[in-house]
Amino acid sequence: MAVGPFARILAQLVVPVVAVLARALPAAYAQALQNARKAGGAAAADAAAKAPLFGKKAMSQQEALQILNMTEQKALTPEAVQKQFEKFMEANDVSKGGSFYLQSKFYRANELLQDYIQDQHTKTGTTGPVAPTQPDEEEDTQQQQSANDSSSSEQQQQQK
């Protein structure tokens, strides 16, 4: 008996909400398409593909070298990386009481370094050892040069 007025009030609330959504959703979709066309849909897809899942960042090459206990001075070869990978995987075998977490770190480090070596071989067309990249080295030399420039200018001013 009291259902009639309650249903009428509910219907009066639901119908306008549905009407607003029916107009707003297609308009929002059209606007999103226009934005994608302006910015280039491929660029958005690339950015989404590079975004880390659940806020996790990808392992860096430096971290991969540290995990597999490889030095920067040593040239990377697929054989050397594989040897270190197998050594650490065997030492941390789960059936022997090892850590699955560490095994996953070794696996990802091996995967990253093998991909890096393969990319370098395709770029250069060689099959020999690959020297690891050191992005911080350029920044360090630039900082040293600017420090040297500023100290030499200070010395010249003191001499005057």
UniProtKB/TrEMBL annotation:
Any one cellular-component term (Gene Ontology): TIM23 mitochondrial import inner membrane translocase complex
Alphabetical UniProt keywords: Membrane, Mitochondrion, Mitochondrion inner membrane, Protein transport, Signal, Translocation, Transport
Record's signal peptide: 1-30
Membrane topology qualifier: Peripheral membrane protein
Low complexity: bias regions: 142-160
Name of the protein this chain belongs to: Membrane translocase subunit TIM16
Record has Membrane as a keyword: yes
Highest rank taxon of the organism: Eukaryota
Stretch list, region Disordered: 119-160
Natural source organism: Seminavis robusta
Family: Belongs to the TIM16/PAM16 family.
Alphabetical GO biological process terms: protein import into mitochondrial matrix
Pfam families found in the cross-reference section: Pam16 (PF03656)
Subcellular location: Mitochondrion inner membrane
InterPro entries: J_dom_sf, Tim16
